[in-house]
Amino acid sequence: MTELILSLDVLDRKRAVEIAEAASPCIDAVKIGYPLVLAAGLGIARDLGGLGLPLIADFKVADIPNTNRLICEQVFAAGFDAVIAHGFTGTDAARACVAAAHDSGGACYVVVEMSHPGATEFFHGGTAERLANLAVDCRADGIIAPATRPDRISVLREIVGSKAIYSPGVGAQGGDPEIVARLVDGIIVGRSIYEAPDPAVAAREFARIRR
Ligand code: BMP
């Protein structure tokens, strides 16, 4: 079944925990990025640890190999189960993230194409395909690909085979969950759940859409 990953981009620690708890029966993982960590601190990973759900650090790590390694070590020491890294900094840099993740028993996902309109300026023209190949070469656990462009997901699936594809851009950015859920291993949903009048109900609706 396609996973449902809650993107918890709220800025208040208490509200973040409440939303995650309310949605938890219907979701498979929680993705936390800079907005929440900068607002609430890295300790938010421990605060959410009691949910028993995998926590994905969406830090889009994009530095030299040594710095990437240092960042990822901190991520896993903080209690995260997975990290998201950029691939455009090169194979050695991405490989440092994958190695740090695997050394900690965690996972690393590489961004190969982003979901917003401007992403086409750089990711199209063969770059996303190269990044998908890089993710395979680095033995990344999966890739991030855009729910806003299902045709592109299909192209990238040809390259990554059975590797996990996690896909943001559903709902608020216009991606159709019914279409995308058939193509990917997990849909990533933020605002359509955490800004809903009742996040638990919204999460249940998205969970129902999954195959
Ligand atoms: P929302 O469902 O509210 O649009 O949130 C999507 C989440 O996925 C955000 O955290 C965003 O930073 C992230 N994301 C994205 O939208 N597109 C990408 O290509 C990569 C992302 O990580």
Give your account of this protein's structure.
With 211 residues, the protein is of the alpha/beta class. The chain has helices spanning 13-23, 34-40, 44-47, 65-77, 91-103, 120-123, 127-137, 150-160, 177-180, 191-194, 199-209, and strands at residues 3-7, 29-33, 55-61, 82-86, 107-111, 142-144, 164-168, 186-189. Strands 1-2-3-4-5-6-7-8 form an eight-stranded parallel barrel, surrounded by six helices. Strand 3 (55-61), helix 4 (65-77) and strand 4 (82-86) form a beta-alpha-beta unit. Helix 4 (65-77) packs parallel to helix 5 (91-103) and helix 7 packs parallel to helix 8. The longest helix has 13 residues, at 65-77. The termini are close together. Residues 7, 9, 33, 58, 114-115, 144, 146, 168-169, 171-173, 188-192 line the site of 6-hydroxyuridine-5'-phosphate. 6-hydroxyuridine-5'-phosphate binds at residues 7, 9, 33, 58, 114-115, 144, 146, 168-169, 171-173, 188-192. One of its GO terms (molecular function) is orotidine-5'-phosphate decarboxylase activity. Its EC number is 4.1.1.23. This is Orotidine 5'-phosphate decarboxylase. Pathway: Pyrimidine metabolism; UMP biosynthesis via de novo pathway; UMP from orotate: step 2/2. InterPro entries: Aldolase_TIM (IPR013785), OMPdecase (IPR014732), OMPdeCOase_dom (IPR001754), RibuloseP-bd_barrel (IPR011060).
Explain briefly what this protein structure is:
The chain has 211 residues and is of the alpha/beta class. It has 11 helices and 8 strands. The structure holds 6-hydroxyuridine-5'-phosphate.
